[in-house]
Each structure stands twice: as structure tokens, then as C-alpha cells.
User: What shape does this take?
Amino acid sequence: MTAELKEPVYLEEKLKDIQDSGRLDFRSGSLPTWCPGCGYYSMTEGVTNSLNELGLKNENVVCVSGIGCASRFPFFVDVYGFHTLHGRTLPVATGIKTANDDLTVVVVGGDGDGFAIGGGHIPHAAKRNVDITYLLFDNGIYGLTKGQTSPTSSMGFKTSTTPYENREQPLKPLMMVLSYGASWVGQAYAGHQHHLAGMIKKAIAHRGFSYLHILSPCVTFDKTDMTYQNMNMAVRPLPEDHDSSDQMAAMIEAGKTDAPGLGVLFEEIRPTLSDNLDAIATSAGADIKAKTAQAAE
Amino acid sequence: MTINGTDLQIAFCGSAGDGTIAVGDILKQAMAMAGYRVIAFDQYPAEIRGFGKCVSRTRVTGEQVYSMKQQTDILVSLDDSHAIPHASEVRDFGAVIYDNAPMSLMMEGEHISGHLQPGQIPYALPIREISERATGSNRGRNMVALGFVAGLYGLQQDVFHTIIARKFKTKPAAVTKDNTAAFDAGFDLGAGEFLFDEVSIGAPPAKAKHEARMLSGNSAVVEGCLDAGIEAYFGYPITPATTIMERLVTEMPKRGKRALQTEDEISAIAATIGAGYAGVRSATATSGPGLALMAEMLGLSVMAEVPSVIFVSQRGGPSTGMPTKTEQSDLNLAVFGGSGDAQRIVLAPTNVEGCWRCAGKAFEMAERYQTPVIVLLDLYLSNRYETVIVSPDERFEASSSKAMVPAKSGEKYQRFAKTDDGISPRAIPGQAGGIHTVTGLEHNDLGRPSDQANIHMDMSEKRHNKLSKAVDHPGITITKRFGDEGDVEVGILAWGSTFGESLEAMMLARDEGIKCAAMKVVMMSPLPEQPISEFMDSANEVLLPELNYEGQFAGIVSGTLGRPVNRLNMVPGTPMRVDDILNEIRRLAGREAKDAA
Assistant: This one.
């Protein structure tokens, strides 16, 4: 026996450590309902940790979800939540942020919610640079409705709605979002939990529209294609010399969907929707400073 | 119907580009400034350029009226090809004013002089020549004609000068000068003519206690929004609602408020609901096709109990239909549109002042009852102008929300707690102790998803019960009876803009000795069953005129109350004619119908 002897770990002590760290402050009492092994567990951990580390108050955060496996997410975090309709997360989030700049708004959704039914909203949230964070879980399938094809399903993939095979070319969300003008674009992988958590924190911290593409295998309805085994082989970190201020360089990386590069593809600082609305109000003669001061009181 | 000595309806008729709508605008502004009550409705073509027909009608009265007249007192032709079909609308001894030397060569029968009826008084003027002499251009023809009308009927010249200067204040000074010169040349000519008409304009009524504002239905909606403290607006352009958005995106930033054009109607209402959830007064405006897109979101607003305000100006349907024509065929969509049992509040104002009041009250109600509120206008009401006089004491509640009561320690805040009135105290994001998630799924008191039988039954009841209190909401008339009291031969039940023509027809029927009353219904959902039922009890026959093919409100009234009504439905794309309603009243009262005059 060559194994080293380790100090015994007592559950109570471990739990106390975790509680003291504040890591659970953003967890609600409800237990998640996802399948064991689902990437959403990593996201929950990543989001709750990030909110904690960014020092935000629970009541100043709003989580918005649509329909899909992500839709129950707001119930599992201890913040304000709006579980909206299929594909309509971004306009609802735009309304919330426009009404109250002090709120931190995090939108979660899947590839179907975002790029099928809700595909018309992403360009506009991106071009307006609404100061919200969009966490998109791409599993290339409709999981909640038990395994139908999605806009990012690969060619030849067989699902219950493409029983012979999917003959449509999958969308390339990262290239789309870059061309829409998102001011922060990144990619992460549910299998690399710590990297994912760090990326979520960066995405939330960014001032403007941040889009995080999260590759997240569906362990229940995809046994052949985008599995953890396959993805573990495919993903790679972005090259060290990748210049995240270079939109064209980001575009080239975004196109490499066979070997997805993880990290921040692109970031820029430009006025947000609220900045622009305030500028419009100022040029129309309103005293925005007085309004802000009033709100602060 | 002559009221207080003054009741004059003036129609300008011309091609797009003749300045028809512009002179109509000056006329109504001037008459309102002089102290008269004005109601005006313009019709113009869907095309931006070309030779489409423009008609601008203005009715000037001493007291408030609720509709246009069927007959015109003065018709001004700026383009005979468009004016000829309207020549028969001019009453006996009414004036028809036209150019005796038209702009272009005409074939026989193309000049309006050949279409006048005996009894109508023609005024053939060298309109183009006068314009050229006064301004060096034929572009002042419309102002010459307006000046002639003003001179002929003795209207106040100085008021027109003020309005002309105001209208062109952003243009070079020469524009005001030329338009004034053209007006004055016409005025002098008119003042020197003999007025055959026995109807002359009386002195303006005693000055109103409060400021009179000249507003269209859509601009009254905007004023209502601003007066109610709207914080956020999201919209997508669509005729005939676009002017609401155009005015709000101009006015709201001046007050530090936010207005945004979204990518479609779905996002417009989604953002409206998002802002409502975040606790501010928010609204959107659209027409029937946009409302159809919004229907799913209305259900979310109902289920998640989030306030939202939606202004809908109806046009001809279905589908793209007739975008520049009026109709009342989106009532079913407004009242029932969406999935599931999703009752909401629907208000339908009957005149421009009502647009202002319903707009403001919609925010109060949405907040108070935590529900979507639809304010249903139609193109006729959106685009028509009226003088509106509202007491400055009439104000909207700045906040009508039932706010969260902080939970006792250890207790979890229940967003959908059961209460006596069905309204649960509401927390908004940013408030400590109020954290909750709202959802389009059926849910329990805490807002947690649930599909248990008892929860769905209780929550369905809660959502419907809370709205039943809306019929008693203070400061808004949801039904009102006019005309004869007690039992009547015919009772007219009317809603929206058609109420104006119904009221006019009812009064004419009473002049003919028919016992008659009319009730306006402003709250279409939830239906004020009791007053409608009582009204129907008092009438031998109930007539329900509306501008749709299927009789949508008649269906709601009959279906809800289980009693029949006599339907009068038509879809001409224009307001209902008073004579059509009057003939139906005569028929129901057993009198003989008469030909339209």
C-alpha cells in the first residue's frame, strides 16, 4: 500500500466552511430538478459564486429565464426572478434594466430558446448594448421536450423530429453574436467548471451586453454527438496571444466550431442602452443628474 | 341639430399636396382658440405621394358634440375630381366654394359646377388667380379658400393670423407672410360677398373655466400617459397607433423618462411587462395585427400578475386589412386574445377626452389590480380632433400599488398570498425581504410552479375575482345613460367611437317623437353586467350598432347576459352614418324608414 494517509474530512466542518465562505448565500431552498450530470449544475455554482464574489446584494439581482431546461433556474437562486415565455428573455430583461439601472440582470437560456424562437431578439439586445448578461447553454438539442432537433444540432444527428437525420447546417452562434455587435463575447464548457465560473464572473462584471456561450452536453438525450467524452477531446483554450480587442480575430476563433476555443473572444467598452437613453434625455433638456441624485436619496 | 346657435361643418377636399389637411388644421386650431368646441376628422390616402384624395372635415359648435354631422354646411373644392362625390353631402343653402378657372383642362362633367343640387349656393372664385396675385405663386390656393370661408361667415381674422404664424414658426418668415397674404386676399373677397346661408356662426360660448386643448385621440392618450407619470415606453410603428409613439419619444426624454423603439411588437410588450415587473409605469401602443402578436405575452402579464398598459388603435381587418380605414373588429382579440382563462381589463373611450382619462386610469388600474389593461381606440378616434377641457383638479393617482408588507422574521414572503380582494401585496426588485420569482407557469402562494388541482382552481378564482372590483374603480365612468328616462321604445347600446353617431341618432329620433335612450359602455372587460342589464330591461328593443361584420360586442353582451340584441353591423371603413342608425331606430320603433337626406 503506497497510498498516502489523508486527514479525515468531517462533513459538518466542511459544510461550516462552505457556509462561512458565503458561497451558499445566493442558493434558494429549492433543489434543482435537472438530470444528474447536467451542465446547469455548473452554471448554478458559477452564478451563485460570481454574485457572491462581486459583492452584490441578493435583492439587487434579477434572473430572467425563458422556456427550456434553463427555465427553472431562477427558482434555484435566492434573487428576484422572472420565468418568462419561450424565446422572450432578452426583451423582458431589456424592460427590467431600462426601468431600473441599479439591478444586475442575468439571462439564462438554451440554444432553442435563444437561436430558434428567440433568434430575432439577440441582434437588437446586442446592438443596443443593454447592460445585461446572457448565459446561453448550447447542448444542440431540445432536452425539456425530450430530444428534438435544435438550431445548433449537427448535420446527420438523429432526433425524434429528425428520425432519418438532420440535414440542416447548424448555426454558428458566436459568429452571429460577434457580427451583431455584442460588446463582450466568451466561450466556456460545462465540463471545465472552474473556468466556467470565472467566465460567468467576467461576463457579469462587464458593463454592456455580455454573451457567454456555454457548451453543455445533454447527458440524457444525446449519447452520440455532443457528449462529455467528445467535448473533452475537442475543446481547447484560446491561444495565449489572442487579442480580445480584435473583432476579426475573434471571428476567426468563433468559426472553429470543431475545436471550440475557451476564453474571452471579444470585449469592448462602449455606451450602454441606458447611457444612450440618458444622453437623449439630456439633449432633450432633462436634468438627468438631478434624477440620479433623487434616486440615490 | 343646432346647438347654442352655432353648428357649422366645413369640409375641404383636395389631392395629396394641395394643402387640404393643412388648412383644415389651421381652421380647427383657430376655432378652438376663438372659444368654440371643435371636432374634426381627416381622411387621407395610404400613399405618401400621388394624387390620392384628402378630406378634412371640421365641425364647429357652441357646446360639446360627440360626432361629425352627416351633412356638410360648407364644401371647399381644391380638386374637383375628389370633391364631386361629396357635393351631395352639402345641405340646402349650404355653400360650395370652388375654382372657376381650374388648374388643368377639364372634360365635360369634370367640373363641380355641373354636380351641384338646386338649393346649394355656389361660390365660383378665381382661387388660383387670387393666390398668384397675393403671393406670386399658385401654392396659396388652400389659404385663399380658407380666407374666403372665414370672410364669408364672419370668423375672427386675427385669430387666424395667430394660428398661421404659429403653424409656420419653424419655417422662413416668408412662408408665414405669403400664407397670411393669401388668407387675407381670400378673406377680403369673402367679406364682400353676400351670405345666402341662413345659418351664421354665433358668438363663441362663454369662456370655459379651464384651458381648452385641441387634441387628437392619440395625442390625448399621450397627455394621459404623461399626466399619469409614465416612466417607460416600448413600441413598434404601426398605423394608426404610430403617432402615439412619435409623440412619446419626443416628450418623455424631456422629462427624463425612457422610450424605445423595439424590434417587433412581441418585444415591445415583453419589455413593457419587464419594466412593469421592475415597478415602473410602462406602456406600449399598437393596432390589431400587433395585438395579435402580443396575445401570448398578455397571458404572461395575467399569470405573473404584472401590470402592463397596451393602447390599441383598431383599423380594418383581418390580417393587414385596411391600414388607413377605421373599424371596431379587434374587440374579441382585446377581450379574449391569448391562451387559457386570461381575463384582463379592456377600456374603450368614446371621445377624445375619454382617451385622456382612460389612458391615465389604465395605469392606475394595471398597478392596482396587477393586470394588463388594454385601451381600445380606433382610427376614427385616434385621428380625430376635439377641444378637450379638463379641470386641473382631475388628477391620476401617482401610485396605486398594494405594496409588500415586510414578512415576519422566519416567514417567507408570499408574492401570491391569498387576500380578501384577491390582490396580493407586491414587492419589486431591489426591495429587501421581497425576493420571489414570477412565472408563466401555474404557481402557489410563493410563486413556485405547481399543477395541483386545488392550486389551479384557487388561483384561477383569485385572478378573476380581483378584477371584479375594477367596475367600481373611482374617477372613471364605465357606463352612462343618455336620453329619455324610464321605459323607452328603443335603447341603443354603443361602444367606442360609434357611440358619438349613436347619440346623435338617438337625439334625432327623440325629435321625431320616439322614446329613446342610449348607453355608452366604456369598460368592455370585465363587463359591467348590472347597469347593462338594467338598461336592457328598460328598452322595448335594444339596438347595438358597431363597425364590424360579426357583431362582436353584441356577441359578448348576448353571450354574457343570455338575452338577444338587435345588431347593426357594417364595415365601410368609415364612421357609421347617423342616418343608418336613425333608420334602424325608426324600424324598431315601428316607424317608417326614410331615405337618407
About this structure: Residues 173-192 of chain B form the longest helix (20 residues). Chain B is about 35% helix and 20% strand.
